[in-house]
């Protein structure tokens, strides 16, 4: 998984439940693309069909979440929504998604985006520590995590992991067994989450500027279904 100028541009992948997509997701996609520069041709947002790590209660139907992601991506030519996870049965494992990507685009380098807490728990994911065979990681700090925390987490997951100079400016980088690199990008984390959007929506409060207008229109057009699903989560608490 080398990064050279002669290599064809890779692709960044942002997985998530997008229940619903919000401005934190969109800014993350924009900033990662800018930071990776010529290393990637674009970013794919990949809505999760059956989240292995999250309760299904309160999850909007896949179709609705994917339509919202598509609507948010519509005016950004480098941003796509990939519905690949809806094509499989059972839990939507990242391992399987990346295998599907590599089969569809052999020779492309993939950059899987995730927050630092998720990176630290990769050993709990299905074949999580093997993922560097399939992709690089772009790790974004959360909860005040620093580059030192990131390197320590990488060494806990992979004792053979070793820091190396990054091709990206001011970015910590670790080489992982299997061939992938993990890049630590110090991007700001906007204080917005899908859970908070759901809580505000159910309380009848205003979610303008937290959810892109294109997704908000779809939420409003489907307000009964949205309420019905999101209420299930609050009733389960
Ligand atoms: P929930 O509140 O339902 O747990 P969420 O807001 O964390 O959801 P997800 O769809 O689970 O949204 O997240 C998809 C991806 O976006 C993950 O990699 C997550 O770390 C990242 N992400 C979520 N919120 C933000 C944010 N505010 N800023 C940057 N990245 C974010």
TrEMBL record:
It catalyses: nicotinate beta-D-ribonucleotide + ATP + H(+) = deamido-NAD(+) + diphosphate. InterPro entries: Cyt_trans-like, NadD/NMNAT, Rossmann-like_a/b/a_fold. Pfam families: CTP_transf_like (PF01467). One of its GO terms (biological process) is NAD+ biosynthetic process. The keyword Nucleotidyltransferase applies. Its EC number is 2.7.7.18. Pathway: Cofactor biosynthesis; NAD(+) biosynthesis; deamido-NAD(+) from nicotinate D-ribonucleotide: step 1/1. SUPFAM superfamilies: Nucleotidylyl transferase (SSF52374). It is an enzyme of class 2 (transferase). Transmembrane segments: none annotated. One of its GO terms (molecular function) is nicotinate-nucleotide adenylyltransferase activity. Catalyzes the reversible adenylation of nicotinate mononucleotide (NaMN) to nicotinic acid adenine dinucleotide (NaAD). Belongs to the NadD family. This is Probable nicotinate-nucleotide adenylyltransferase. It comes from Desulfovibrio desulfuricans.
């Amino acid at each position: 998984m080398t990064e050279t100028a002669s290599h064809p541009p890779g692709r960044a992948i942002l997985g998530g439940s997008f229940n619903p997509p919000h401005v934190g997701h969109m800014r993350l996609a924009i900033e990662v693309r800018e930071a990776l520069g010529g290393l990637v041709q674009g970013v794919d947002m990949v809505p999760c069909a059956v989240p292995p790590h999250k309760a299904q209660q309160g999850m909007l139907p896949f179709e609705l979440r994917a339509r919202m992601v598509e609507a948010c991506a519509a005016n950004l030519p480098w941003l796509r929504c990939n519905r690949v996870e809806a094509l499989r049965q059972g839990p939507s494992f990242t391992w399987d998604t990346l295998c599907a990507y590599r089969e569809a685009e052999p020779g492309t380098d993939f950059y899987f985006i995730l927050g630092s807490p998720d990176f630290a728990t990769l050993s709990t994911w299905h074949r999580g520590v093997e993922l560097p065979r399939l992709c690089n990681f772009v790790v974004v700090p959360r909860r005040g995590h620093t580059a030192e925390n990131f390197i320590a987490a990488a060494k806990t997951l992979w004792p053979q992991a070793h820091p190396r100079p990054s091709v990206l400016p001011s970015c910590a980088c670790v080489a992982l067994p299997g061939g992938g690199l993990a890049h630590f990008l110090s991007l700001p984390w906007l204080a917005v989450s899908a859970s908070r959007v759901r809580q505000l929506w159910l309380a009848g409060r205003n979610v303008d500027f937290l959810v892109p207008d294109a997704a908000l229109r779809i939420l409003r057009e489907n307000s009964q279904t949205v309420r019905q699903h999101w209420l299930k989560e609050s009733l389960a608490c």
